[in-house]
Design goal:
Radius of gyration: 30 Å
Largest sheet: 9 strands, mixed
Distance between the termini: 21 Å
Helix content: 40-55%
Structural class: alpha+beta
Number of helices: 14
Order of helices and strands: HHHEEHEEHEHEEEHEEHEHHHHHH
Shape: elongated
Strand order of the largest sheet: 6-7-5-8-4-3-10-1-11
């Protein structure tokens, strides 16, 4: 398309015409930006998903405060503390109720192929609240019979087709820690870093499955406060009044405590952040090459425009608009592909990988910065446009 025609069509942006003049080149640019965006979506999605997976059970607790032993390091290394600390916590005027929770890993036998695998077992009094699930109270009633367990249907497939058998009306019995149990219900918790699967049972059944666990010892104490209570104020008060063999924290702090353990004790955060950075750099190189080639190819046209009176600033704006257009056109397929890949990861691994607004916004800003930065670098070539060389 000739330069005169471009100038006549003032309603069509010059930046758009320059980009679409060579369809193959713009398709390559969009593919490159989308690839960089997908790489960043996946790397950051995996990182956040893995950290969120470490607190799938924590988030479901019906509690405002949590009591743990100061010796506890994470969900895979919980230490016990005296159960009577919950009774002492009940003396606080803002405490509404408490739930004692036993938490440990036991061996589950797959009833289909008889293999064994470690499963996270939670024991509690069925008459007390445990999870925020509105239907959980009805399911917990079945645990009042000794030897009954609730199985997590989001557990990995290696535990056997428990949910499928139970929902089809089949009697599901297996062994936990070498003792026979019957599945009396299904819950949805989800696997985590430390646990591939979960089961919930009563304190009575739990102590029968784990006879080495002292009866007066628990691993987690859940505390519910009266409406309108100041959570942080109660945390400080209980930490001062209770003995030093227990630590009181808010539910949010308990979730952060678990996440921080995995962030500080593993290199997951660094590895996935580095992967996202690599995607950003690859995208920068691709966009820069596209824009640099575009400016180089149209250098005579730019020189002609300068000879006609267009100043350098207005021509730099054309290159900047090209970068902006590429960022929009590259982000859209990256976002759509990211959503599809997240769904694939969820169905394949059961990890809670979700497209959050904050992550979508951050990656859009990164792609925009990547394209505008590359455009800024390509502008240096525009300074070589000399009208004297044309005429």
């Amino acid at each position: 398309m000739g330069l005169n025609n471009l100038l006549k069509q003032r309603k069509i942006p010059l930046a758009w015409l320059l980009l679409t003049r060579q369809p193959l080149r713009i398709l390559v640019a969009i593919a490159g930006i989308a690839f960089a965006g997908i790489l960043m979506f996946m790397q950051l999605g995996f990182r956040d998903g893995l950290f969120d997976a470490s607190v799938t059970v924590h988030k479901l607790f019906d509690a405002d405060l949590v009591l743990i032993s100061p010796r506890s390091k994470s969900s895979i290394s919980m230490s016990g503390f005296p159960r009577r600390r919950l009774v002492q916590a009940m003396a606080h005027k803002d405490v509404l109720g408490t739930t004692a929770v036993n938490w440990n890993f036991l061996l589950w036998r797959n009833p289909e192929n008889l293999s064994t695998r470690s499963i996270l077992a939670l024991g509690f009094e069925p008459s007390n609240p445990l999870l925020i699930d509105s239907d959980f109270e009805r399911k917990a009633e079945t645990l009042k019979n000794k030897g009954r367990v609730l199985f997590d249907d989001l557990s990995r497939d290696e535990f056997g087709p428990i949910s499928l058998w139970f929902k089809s009306g089949r009697l599901v019995e297996t062994e936990v820690a070498g003792k026979r149990v019957r599945v009396s219900g299904i819950v949805s918790l989800g696997p985590s870093f430390g646990a591939d699967g979960n089961l919930i049972t009563s304190s009575e059944t739990y102590l029968d499955l784990s006879p080495g666990n002292p009866k007066g010892s628990i691993e987690i104490g859940l505390v519910r406060l009266k409406k309108g209570s100041d959570v942080e104020k109660v945390v400080r008060s209980l930490n001062l009044s209770l003995p030093s063999d227990v630590k009181v924290m808010s539910l949010k702090s308990f979730i952060d405590f678990e996440k921080n353990y995995w962030k500080s004790s593993t290199s997951i955060g660094f590895i996935f952040t580095l992967g996202a950075a690599m995607g950003f750099i690859v995208g920068c190189v691709i966009v820069y090459q596209i824009l640099y080639s575009d400016v180089s190819d149209h250098l005579p046209e730019y020189a002609t425009l300068m000879a006609m009176g267009y100043n350098l600033r207005s021509l730099l704006g054309v290159v900047a608009r090209e970068g902006f257009i590429l960022s929009i056109m590259g982000y859209i397929p990256a976002y759509i592909s990211g959503q599809a890949l997240y769904a694939l990861v969820r169905s394949s691994t059961k990890l809670p990988v979700e497209m959050s607004f904050s992550r979508a916004s951050i990656i859009f800003c990164l792609i925009l910065f990547m394209c505008m930065g590359s455009a800024l670098a390509a502008m240096k070539k525009l300074a070589d446009a000399d009208p004297a060389e044309i005429f």
